[in-house]
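TEACHING EXERCISE
Course module: macromolecular assemblies
Task: Read the component lines below, then compare them to the predicted structure of the full complex.
Student: A.B.
Group: 4
Components provided:
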Amino acid sequence: MKSTINRCKSMINIAMMPVLLAASTALYAQKKPNNSPNLTPCYMEGLSDRLMCGSIAQPLSDDPNDGVIDIHFAVIPAIKPSNPDEAVLGFAGGPGQGAIDLAAIFNRNLRFARETRDIVLVDQRGTGYSHQLQCDSDDLKTQFVFNDVIADLQAMGAEDTQKCKAKLNIDLSHFTTPVAAKDFEAVRKALGYKGFHLFGVSYGTRIAQEYMRQFPESVLTSTLDGVVPMQQSLAAIGGAIDGSLAALFKRCEADTLCAEHYPNLENNFHALLAQLEQQPVKTQVRHPRTHDVIAFTITKMKFYSAIRFALYSQAQRAIVPMVIEKALSGDFSPLAGMMANVDLTEALAMGMHNAIVCGEDWPNLTPQTRQEYGKTYMGKAMIAGFDIACPILNVQAVDKAFYQPLKTSTPTLLLSGGRDPATPASWAELAMVEMTNATHLVAPTATHGVGSQTCAPKIIAKFIAQQSMQDIDTDCLEEPNDKPFFMNINGVAVANKQLTDTANKE
Amino acid sequence: MINLLKVLYKKEVMDASRDKRSIMAGLYYAIGAPIGMCLLMSVLLQQLASPEALNINIENSERAPGLIAHLNSQDIFASHDENERKAITLTISEDYQQKMSEGRPATVTLIADKSDDKLRKHITQVEKAIALYSSEIASLRLVSRGVDPSLMRAIALEVHDQATPDSKGGMILGIVVLTLILALFYAAMNLAIDTSAGERERNSLSLLLSHPLHSLHIVLAKIGAITTFSMLGLVVILVVSKFSYAMVPWQQMGFSITITPEFMLFSIAICLPIALMSASLQVFVSFMAKSFKEAQSYVTMVLFIPMALSMITTYDIATDKVQWLPIAAQQFALMEFIKGNPIPVPQLLLSTVITLVLFAAFSFLSARMLKSEKVVFGL
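Instructor-supplied answer key:
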């Protein structure tokens, strides 16, 4: 029905993307020399500190005839290098995000850990500067007008997958998680660190676990934030999205003001989805940046996806009830505003993304799991997308042992957000069944990526410093960090009736 | 002649080392200054590292629950207890909710005394927290209208800071180097006065001069002994600094101060001419004075000049011309070295030459003074 790789249906691509680290990025690094472990100063967007960038050549595959690819990395130097033998290794999410581009975010979340240890960021093969596998994507205008209901998505998806495959012209089997883990070890050796403290976010927790499995001696501690268990396909994400959305509706119901302003919100939302499924709405909106009048086709997939991505951010969650109510009354500009910044096909290397999902998340789907995940709207769409793209891409399935839960006694800290629309707390519980030295913390109101919310950066730094969770006070994670809902288009506060009347006179 | 100088130097050093208490008194500064400073900074950093929640007075807080929740998330809380809260008052205006829902700027008044230095930091904290809330609401207002809020950022200013953690210490680095240079002057100050004005008061100076010796030899031997003790002071302060500065958690402030062996050798090389100059200056001033007590006062006063030069550099108020002067230039070179920046070689060379010329001049003048009976007998 739909495709994962898709040139003219970027909005639909977004629907397929299992997990991600919410952050927008752009290329901003200085040119780095190839095939040289020499470190040169470089700067990344949003971070004024000077980093050291470099790259190493890694064989593409076991066959020497396949040649090498450059694996790029950046080191954020410690403020006071009291532990020069150790570094914190950050893994980006996606799959498909480059870690180096996210230097500012890693620096912020690991700021306390950085006081005494370097932070190392490696662009996983296929992402960022390390042989990025990117397919073409659409501009916002095309995305806005595209109607995913009437189009023959199966044929289009297949065609675009073929195009992307031809463009990349490389065997994607060399870009799966087990292969990529070896690059990180090579970087560790090249930089001369005795051990890494791992910090993985979202999909980054999967590669972190694989790295722990392959190179247990190189890992001092591991912090997994938004945990993806090895046993489970990312297609299970549908349940997480619905759960996070249900939590939002429940919170609004429990809030007197919100319940009063947006009565029956959950039912209204589902009614609207049903309506859009039957008949997509065709309208016009102003382009969010150019202000031109552009055509806007609202389908169920587009609407649901926009709401889905708003669930990642505490600020955007605050306007979800209002966006739904406005859409019900036929005003879709708030929806357009929410979609304006979701340009994920640019931020994610889609070729690498598909190598991962087709090599790891598609082959282990069973009739039972297909049925189970297919119960949710997004799960069903995602599986359908896999079924179109993966046979074309022909990525070699990973070994069965890959799906075993990680057995480890390395100190491990697992973090989950109680309202996470991607990796709920139950996923972390599943991941830690064979971990003998693991602590799981849940921040009840946090969304995806606890490391950037509440007081988590301090807890992570203490855990890294003492290599255990003993005596670390984690109460501060309990503090609510959600934001009050918007009650009208202007903000959280509501005036009393009389004042609203005077406002209406304007 | 060299032999003669050696004997004289030996005599001076032996003389000086007999009074162990006085030597130790000179070295107390070298040991105490870095340790004292580190203790002070550690206490200060501890306060910065665990900032207490800021309690302020918020009036009509029930009108702006969203703002209050945001302030709480930034560790700013409303408190009714006047004793535990800071003298900052936030007043939510009566029409806050009306203005907010109409999309007009809603007024919040901050009442505080900005001349109160202790309060200023907290006022900034409150201002920043409110600005953040304001821009967050504004962004969501734009999104709600279908406008990309990034339009509000016409320019994305990307700063490429060339500083390293070692060079960000700024003022503190300056103070570190200042304590080093002051050690040169203070460690052997007692000795300088004792070996000149003191020797005259004990009447052993005339005895020394009655030998068939050139007065310049006597002066140079004295300067040599004083220099030895100043350099000893420098070595002590460097070693103490190396260990004590390493124990302060500077990284919490985003920089580090590391005294490397290379820096220690570099400072010893740079400071030797200063030590010579300081010794000759102190001897000269002491001979000028009529008595021991007078010498003490004069030396202390004269030492203000090198101190001022050093401080000018520390507090970065030096003009480009001052950077060529002795001590200021050496101090600047030491600071650049510790930061890992290139050293200003021409300034350093010129000032070193000037320092040595001053040393020669003071030595020569002291030697000439010793030919006058007025000086020798303190008449």
